[in-house]
Amino acid sequence: MFSGKSQTACFSTCLFTLLACFFSHQTYANENEDGSFGLTSFAFASYLGTGFYTTSGQNVFVLQMPFEHTIKEKTDSEAGWVLNLPVTIGFINFDSLKVEELPGVNDVGTITFLPGLEYQYPVTPDWTLIPFADYGFARELDATSNVLITGTGLKSYFDVHFNNAKFTLGNRFLYAREQSKDFSTASSYSLLETGLNLRFASNFSFIDEPLYSNFYYINFYYPNNLVFFEQTPNPIKIGIEHEAGFTLSNIPDFLFFENAQIGIGIRFGNNINVYRLVFGAPF
User: Fold this and answer.
1) DSSP per residue over 22-48, as a string?
2) What is the DSSP annotation of 142-192?
3) In CATH, what class is 4-279?
4) Which of 26, 32, 217, 256 is the least buried, fewest Cβ under 10 Å from its Cβ?
5) Is the model more confident about 124 or about 9?
6) Is the model's pTM score more than 0.85?
7) 242: which strand partners?
8) CA 58 → CA 37, 40, 139, 165, 228, distances in Å?
9) Which residues, including other chains, have CB under 8 Å from residue 1's CB and lie 6 or more apart?
10) Domain residue ranges in the chain
């Protein structure tokens, strides 16, 4: 039997999922309307994550370094605070994904620094709500222009445990806005994200720690549609995306990655393919 709080958690997460499916259907019906792609969205690269973004005639590589600092550790009964300090670099001037032609330092096109604060509130031991706020800047190196970025939203994680497995339903609502210092205009976009993750205990270990295998799926819905590097000849336009992938978790920390999780994912939708390198939880 579920407790009252568990029933509330199930209702909330199901509502997130239903909204995502509804909005996805609406976007497919309206994605060709004029004016639906209007954002100078290189500023929002920090929200896209590390990976190769490819479309007709254009390749973009986004590398994110997810620095963070735990101000107060969350427990099953007490809330925690986390300060995020991600640095995101965008490479935009290369022609293929061949190893010998991967982008180098001279191909860096944008840099984003977007500090943010998360409040991790445990509604139950298996359900956590995380309101968050971000404020930072992005710089397009070729145009030497700076853009101020603000973002706010809510994340939800709900876990269900089995004998040797754990199922996680994750949701995120995000609203972000960018404002150029050189122009009076501003742009914004929103995201509704629904993720499913199934974790299994494996028979393998690394430095005496058991490894976990994770299979995940994520649905991304951008109500206003997101244009990635719209100033390039072939802008990448993102409306609806789906991502499926595999990761290994519970590996030792390395470099700037804590609670390390490594894997690969493939994201597709709206004439875009993303070969994503996953460092940390996929959602």
Assistant:
1) HHHHHHHHHTTSTTS----GGGGGGGT
2) TTTEEEEEEEEEEEEEEEEE-SSEEEEEEEEEEEEEEEESS-S-EEEEEEE
3) mainly beta
4) 32
5) 124
6) no
7) 219, 268
8) 17, 16, 20, 40, 11
9) none
10) 4-279
User: For residue range 227-257, what is the model confidence (pLDDT) as tens digits?
Assistant: 765 655 666 667 788 999 999 988 877 665 6
Residue 33 pLDDT = 35
Amino acid at 268: F
Contact yes or no for 94/116 (Cβ under 8 A): no
CA distances to 81, 141, 210 from 135, rounded to whole Å, are 16, 20, 37
Identify the CA nearest to 138 among candidates 64, 43, 48, 226.
43
**Residue 93: pLDDT over 80:** no
% of the chain surpassing 70 pLDDT: 68
Answer whether 239's CB lies under 8 Å from 29's CB.
no
